[in-house]
Amino acid sequence: MNQEPKRLIAARIAALLFLIWGLLHVAGGLTMLLAANTSVDAYLQLLSDGAEASGIENVAIGKVFAFHAFNLLWMGALCIWIVWRFNWRNRPEGLWLNLMLIGLADAGLLLFMVGSGVMPIANAWLGPALLLLALGAVLVSRWRKEPVGA
To answer: For the chain, what is the radius of gyration of the CA atoms?
Structure first.
């Protein structure tokens, strides 16, 4: 039985999971960027439990928030480009590029946002779950059975 169609299907499943991750991060980045550039005061008060901050602190925090939003946006866009250019064709360099990009982004999320208590895991589980599912599909897509005695 030819294993190539199974590997291609697994690679395309991984590509679709990477695509979903990318689209979610582009949408999230755009939404956050719009919020950061209109009025970030409501967001900042929500984060600080209503504590007042000085004007310069609000500006600085707002700019860091905008920078984070921009990073989410470009990471999502790069992920989508890698899917289009490499993942759909089961090219190994694309699989590893997206695993590294998404893995590092989600590691930062878990370490600095969830680990510090800023974001509950209930709001952060989708990205890492997509990564783990895609990793499983990547492993299937790259798996090659060697003939006995080879």
So the answer is: 19
The structure's pTM equals 0.82
Q: How many angstroms separate the Cα of 47 from the Cα of each of 28, 116, 119, 146, 150?
A: 17, 13, 10, 54, 60
Q: Give mean pLDDT in consecutive 10-residue pieces for the chain, a chain of 150 residues.
A: 76 95 96 80 57 65 87 97 93 92 95 90 93 93 67
Q: Which long-range contacts (CB under 8 A, 24 or more apart) does 120-129 make?
A: 126/24, 127/21, 127/24, 127/25, 127/102
CA distance 10 to 16: 10
Is residue 141 within 8 Å of 98, Cβ to Cβ? no
Q: What is the Cα–Cα distance from 116 to 128, expressed in whole angstroms? A: 17
Structure tokens given for 112: 């600095």
Token duo for residue 64? 């860091």
- Measure CA 50 to chain center: 30
Which stretch of DSSP H or E encloses residue 11? helix 4-38
